[in-house]
Structures are given as C-alpha cells and as structure tokens.
Amino acid sequence: MSGAVITIDGPGGAGKGTVSLAVAHQLGWDYLDSGALYRVLGLSASRKGIAFDDEPALAAEAAQLGVSFGADDPNLGVRVLLNGAEVTQDIRTETAGKAASQVAAVPAVRSALLQRQRDFEQPSGLVADGRDMGTTVFPDAGLKIFLTASAEERAKRRYKQLIAKGDDANIRALQQEIEARDRMDSERSVSPLRPAENAVMLDSTSMSIDEVVSAVLALATERGLSV
Ligand code: C5P
Question: Is the pLDDT of residue 56 over 80?
C-alpha cells in the first residue's frame, strides 16, 4: 500500500510508545499500538481460562477480540477497551506484558491479528509501534525505525514510572523480566523481534524522548513523509 507509514519497532521499554505517539501527534497521523492488541488478548484469554498453549482457542479468541481504542487521556495515554470496558491500566502490568508475550509467540494468533493491524493504515498517515511492524505488518513503510536502549536503562525507566505511580518496584527484578521478555520475543519462530533490513537503528540509551522524536521527524522530512 502507500508509504505514509512510519514503523517503530524495538524491545520493551525503549520508549517506542511515547515516541510513536509524539511523532503521530506532530504529523497529525494516526497511531497503532500493536502491543496493546497482544496485551488485550492475553488479558481476555486469562479471564476466560484459555491456556496460553491452546493454539486453536487463542486463534479463535484473537479473531473475535472486541478491542477498541479511545481518545488519549493525558495521564493514561491512549485508552484501550475490551468489549467496551476500560482495560487501559489492567493491560500495563508486568503480568499482562508476560501474558502478551506468550500469546504473541503463537503463530495462529499472529495470523489472526495481521489484517486487523493493516486495517489501521490511513491515507492520512500512520505511526505503528511494535516488534514486527517493519518486517511483517507494513513491509512497504516509508520509514522504519528500530529503537533500542540498554536493558539496564530500560529497567531504570520502568522503575521510575512504577515509583511515580506509587507502586513497589525492584530494579534488578525488573531488568531480569525485561531480559527474559527480550529473549522470548527474539527467539520465537514467527515474526521474531529483529530490525527490518532497511530500518534505521536508533539507540535511545543516552537520548531524551524529545531528541528521539526530533530524530524521527527529521528522517520523516528527509524521506518526504511529513507535510
Ligand atoms: O509493546 P508491548 O510491551 O506493549 O508489547 C507486549 C508484548 O506483545 C511484547 O513483549 C511482544 O511479545 C508482543 N508484541 C508482538 N508484536 C508486536 C507488538 C507486541 O509480538 N507487534
């Protein structure tokens, strides 16, 4: 399809969500948080007692998943609904992240969600954030970014977020969870986490969010993507 798509892939905690949303706002484009689809599926499957290795049941659940996105909330970000009920905070826990990663490794789940993700593409532009946006979902995107940061830095950022929310957190445990999820995402057989061949690599370890956003916008302008 058209090239009015920017993909931002990379491991969890590298800042993809914040950067993608800011880039989408600046350009006036739509935003797809593909991780939210896997998170909602993990939540819905857990609530229904579907085992994370029950491929046919997970695929059926993915095919009829009643997920929708609401308007941005200044505190919560993009609001996520399951069958019309707010799940924005429920899907952001570490447990929900792990569940997402487990259901995301199931090939039939990825096939069931593929077209649904492609349907987010708009003539007016889309910024898509995930693990395989540039490799599988939008292979013709006009700009593909692979955003990384060291596991230590990602754990530090997550720690700060949790403490700011008033939650308990242990930085070493967080880093271990982050590394375990990276491994699970990188080693799965379908659409593993890896940069697309023509992706631009950005390491955000010592960059601020604003610096990363500016770098992405400059690349978009270079490619003639921004209007
Ligand atoms: O990006 P986020 O942390 O919300 O993603 C949660 C999980 O969903 C990831 O760890 C990954 O396993 C899965 N995911 C995926 N493909 C995507 C987006 C997310 O496999 N495009």
Answer: yes
Does 51 have pLDDT greater than 60?
yes
The mean per-residue pLDDT over the stretch 30-53 comes to 97
Q: Decide: 12 in ligand 1 pocket, CB within 6 A.
A: yes
Phi, psi at 177, each rounded to 5°: -65, -40
Structure tokens at 187: 């080693």
* CA 12 centroid distance within chain: 8
Residue 7 CA to residue 209 CA, distance in Å, equals 17
Distance CA 88, CA 94 (A): 13
- Average pLDDT of the chain is 93
> Can you give the three-state secondary structure of 110-174, one letter per residue?
HHHHHHHHHCCCCCCCEEEEECCHHHHHCCCCCEEEEEECCHHHHHHHHHHHHHHCCCCCCHHHH
Identify the architecture of domain 5-220 in CATH: 3-Layer(aba) Sandwich (3.40)
The per-residue pLDDT for 191 is 87
Residue 151 contacts residue 175 (beta carbons within 8 Å): yes
Who's near 163: CB < 8 A, 6+ residues apart? 169
> Are the beta carbons of 72 and 78 closer than 8 angstroms?
yes
Residue nearest to atom 16 of ligand 1 (CA): 131
Nearest CA to ligand 1 atom 6: 35
